[in-house]
Amino acid sequence: MLPARLFHETEFAGHGTASETICLALRSAILEDMLAPGQPLPQSELAAGFGVSIIPVREALKHLEAEGLVAFLPNKGATVMGMEESDVLEYSQIRALLEEQAAGYAVQNMNRVHLARIEDAYEAFVEGVSGPNGPVKSGALNRAFHNAIYAAADKPRLLEMIDDLHVRLDRYIRGHLRIEGRKTTTDCEHLAILNACRAKDAPLAAKLTRLHILDAAEISLEIFRQKQKQRGVK
């Protein structure tokens, strides 16, 4: 049985297709742990809950399959996809390497407009994550800060690979920001990266980015292990 609030919190606002709206709702539910790994996603139940036919539901599930969030299993149908600890670690290491490169390229190309956007994104993270809905917005605001830097790299295929990794890892990496005191550490690390951008120090910005991601990944892995224990997964 799927949680009722999955359907109650979804509005078909008239822009975008039904499959896009359903895809967004399911993606958010998965990333926010409303739908845990292994949760079946019966197409008939989803269609009835969203008040649509099977077709947009199937399209949404296929899109989420491409993102690595849903799997179609034999005799079970669509199911929320989970990761092993080794998967999270490997993806995190790859992400750190790619984002290190992106930061280095970005600083080499950075101009005043890029820097102003990065500073705005930094302030938005500092203020937004401190607010009442901070934990919910933390992932998007953190991503916006890093993306504001990487935009200057002018490497669209590299950024596409980074975005794909982030979608796959988001539900595992955002947890570290909910730990008491971690927000202050993250602000300091972001500021150090921002200052390296201001100084046009590409090697330093690249190094700080890699260390920042690996540090956060280690904390997120510990949270992942704790959740696995709570679910009785060995």
TrEMBL record:
Q: Which UniProt keywords apply?
A: DNA-binding, Transcription, Transcription regulation
Which positions fall inside the HTH gntR-type domain?
Answer: 16-83
| UniProt cross-references to InterPro entries, sorted A to Z | GntR_C, TF_FadR/GntR_C, Tscrpt_reg_HTH_GntR, WH-like_DNA-bd_sf, WH_DNA-bd_sf
Species of provenance: Acetobacter orientalis
Q: Which domain of life is it from?
A: Bacteria
Name of this protein? GntR family transcriptional regulator
What's an example of a GO molecular-function annotation for this chain?
Answer: DNA-binding transcription factor activity
What are the leading ranks of the lineage? Bacteria, Pseudomonadati, Pseudomonadota, Alphaproteobacteria, Acetobacterales
Q: Coiled coil: which residue ranges?
A: none
Q: Which PROSITE patterns match?
A: HTH_GNTR
UniProt xrefs under PANTHER family:
TRANSCRIPTIONAL REGULATOR, GNTR FAMILY, TRANSCRIPTIONAL REGULATORY PROTEIN
